[in-house]
Design goal:
The protein has one helix spanning 122-130, and strands at 12-15, 23-29, 36-43, 46-51, 76-77, 84-85, 92-94, 104-105, 107-110, 113-116. By secondary structure, it is mostly beta strands. It has one domain: Rieske [2Fe-2S] iron-sulphur domain (Rieske Iron-sulfur Protein, 3-layer Sandwich), CATH 2.102.10. The strands form 3 sheets. It has a 4-stranded antiparallel sheet. A 3-stranded antiparallel sheet has the order 1-10-9, with no helix packed on it. A 3-stranded antiparallel sheet has the order 5-6-7, with no helix packed on it. 27% of the residues are buried.
Length: 132
């Protein structure tokens, strides 16, 4: 009998079933003054993760909590300046940061959960954002 792999609950973002298609939601992982603030986007059976940080203004994309998508769900929307980003790549296609990218956070699906990928170092990722 093989041992079941345990889920690292500190890396869990949410249950995959909690995301509509299309859908998005924000998350915070870590403690202290600078936890990782990100969001995930569902596109059919795929999930992408991004740092919740506008490349133009440096603030959160969601002025209303968890509202990251345009009304039709086709694109990621910066609620402050109206920049539009591709959901699968994070590439800005319109707005004040056109041509720039959101910073990706590798995520994975495991046991019905959306989780940070094993290679994500939360502290290093946040330090790199602080340096921007």
């Amino acid at each position: 009998m093989s041992a079941a792999r345990q889920i690292d609950v500190e890396r869990v973002v949410c249950r995959f079933s909690e995301l509509t298609d299309p859908g998005a939601r924000g998350f915070t992982i870590g403690t202290g003054d600078w936890p990782l603030r990100g969001f995930i986007v569902r596109v059919r059976d795929a999930v992408r993760g991004y740092v919740n940080h506008c490349p133009h203004a440096g603030h959160s994309l969601d002025l209303i909590p968890h509202r990251f998508l345009t009304h039709d769900g086709a694109l990621i929307l910066c609620g402050s300046h109206g920049a539009l980003f591709d959901k699968l790549s994070g590439y800005c296609i319109a707005g004040p940061c056109a041509g720039q990218n959101l910073r990706a956070i590798p995520v994975k699906l495991e046991g019905g959960f959306v989780m940070l990928a094993d290679e994500v170092d939360v502290g290093a990722l946040m330090r790199s954002i602080d340096a921007i």
